[in-house]
Amino acid sequence: MNCKTWATAVKNAAYFRERVNEGEFVYALYAAVIHSNLGEGIVLPPLYEVTPHLFTNSEVIQKAYTAQMTQTPGKFRIEFTGSKKNPEQRVAYFGEDIGMNVHHVTWHLDFPFWWNDAYGYHLDRKGELFFWAHHQLTVRFDAERLSNNLDVVDELYWDKPIKEGFAPHTTYRYGGEFPTRPDNARFEDVDGIVRVRDMIIHETRIRDAIAQGYITAVDGTKIDIRNSEGIDHLGDIIESSFYSPNARYYGSLHNDAHVILGRQADPHGKFNLPPSVMEHFETATRDPAFFRLHKYMDNIFKEHKDSLPPYTAEEIGFPGVQLTRVGVEGKLETFFEDYEFDLKMAVDSSESANEVDVSAAVSRLNHNDFTYKFDIKSNAAKPAVVRVFLCPRRDSNGIIYTFEEGRWNCIEMDKFWTKLRRGANVIRRKSSDSSVTVPDVPSFQTLITEADKAVAGNSGFDFAHYARSCGIPNRMLLPKGSETGMEFALVVSVTDGASDEQHDALEDATTESHTQCGIHGEKYPDHQPMGFPLDRRIPDERVFLSSDNNAYTIVKVYFKGEH
To answer: Within 10 A of 210 (CB to CB), how many other CB atoms are there?
Structure first.
């Protein structure tokens, strides 16, 4: 990251590639490309082809090795971990999705806990983005559970057993298999690293800060959190990152929680087991306990949000603007499809034996494209932000959520800027243009081929389209739904965009997955809190619905099985 020229950076990378741990090297290279000016515009290959061991079942890796040794090309199917005896198997397609895994690891590369502004720039609203990105993962997981007739996920408790065990069926390239956790394991101290009592103490201090309305900085000053900026400070101390104003006092609740949960298979180091899936960003979401852990974190954030006063009609209104109709063109349909990716980097090669083609095929969720249609009347030309949410309508027992119950479960589907004309406006927005999602990065081989063509001057490949990997895969924008059609509330709010510094540049832009990932090196484009206007309590839904700029309609998401 400190290299001033491209030649120096490449030579440094080549030097360290031969001398440091493989995982460290890949992490360092990706972080440097993301954050260095020299890396601007570079499309990094998908991590599931660079380090396939972290994304692929060990059974498939073994078959790939056999294929290489016998010089027999092969394509091998990945089965999700567990069996039908385990209810969590119904939603394994979500936590084990290779695209979702890449989003999670890339978010933490974009916003690393170790980041110091001395590296070149400030990561704007990093703490709030930590809350929002993980909140959205949690509510998306809950929507998938409801789609599969499961209760929403329950949070973890330090004094109760971890009900669900997990057998990851994955292995390190060097260093053995990822540890298995049995059912009903109880939290124990991890020798020399973290104690359960430390987790409880730090949680209590954070909840006290929420109750008191301020965080105590290391110099004793008080940082007010009873405002829109409070969530950012809270995210900094919960994660915690170098931005934490008092890490020694508030601890590192999130990071330590991943370690203590991950080490429960061998908390005392008796068997010298390697780190678990919970200790790698690439693999953490494979374990269903990841979502229980983040529901625990999410409920702490909710406690803070619920301590703030509800928005007034004036705060959520947009005078002179009427959202008269909300609709969707095209049926909301999901399905499973097969996806194939390369496994060459999963196996060792030698000069004495040729590489053979080995690949993995995995079933993954996708949906048909659709288009939003919004009819908006405006009394003048003005910049606006259109905020789109999809909220499960019923709980697992079929009972309709109240507006207040349901708003915390809403999935952010899109957020975009547009210029309203005076009079009637009809806005159509494709699902593929969502600022929440990113497309699949092409395979490593495709990137190599297209780069060679570009050097030769004959490539029409749009590299800029794949410059970011942080974002929900665009094929997973919709939750699975059900065969008979699962009901959701499509909630839309049109708000004033005049206070957003970059609204002119952002109007109708489709290239940035900025809602959960921000914009590199720049201020977060939206001046409102993330999740606005559904992020605070709504004790009276009439206040929300009486504003002409807000509206909702009921839609159904249909699951159509295999494609």
So the answer is: 20
**Contact predicate 286/178, CB 8 Å:** no
What's the pTM? 0.96
Rounded to 10 degrees, what is the CA torsion of 465, 469, 413, 155?
A: 180
Q: What is the pLDDT of residues 49-60, one digit of tens each?
A: 999 999 999 999
pLDDT at 281 > cutoff 70 = yes
Q: Three-state SS for 521?
A: coil
User: What does the pLDDT average to over 211-240?
Assistant: 98
Kind of pairing between the strands at 550-562 and 411-420: unpaired
Largest CA distance in the chain: 75
The answer to whether the CB of 313 falls within 8 A of the CB of 536 is no
Task: pLDDT band for 283, please (50, 70, 90 cuts).
Answer: very high
The pLDDT of residue 504: 65
| DSSP secondary structure letter of residue 155 | P
Q: Is 139 helix (H, G, I), strand (E, B) or coil?
A: helix
CA–CA distances in Å: residue 155 to residues 151, 244, 273 = 12, 24, 26
Question: Tell me: the pLDDT tens digits for 58-109?
Answer: 999 999 999 999 999 999 999 998 888 999 999 999 999 999 999 999 999 9
- What 3-state DSSP class applies to 190? strand
- Partner residues linked to 337 by β-bridges: 364
CA–CA separation, 135 and 531 (whole Å):
10
Give me the pLDDT at residue 521, please.
87
Tally of CA atoms within 13 A in the half-sphere of 375 that contains its CB: 5
Residues serving a catalytic function are: 239
**Residue 524 CB partners (closer than 8 Å, separation 6+):** 124, 125, 128, 129, 514, 518
Other CB atoms within a 10 A radius of the CB of residue 386 amount to 22
Contact (Cβ atoms closer than 8 angstroms) between residue 133 and residue 516: yes
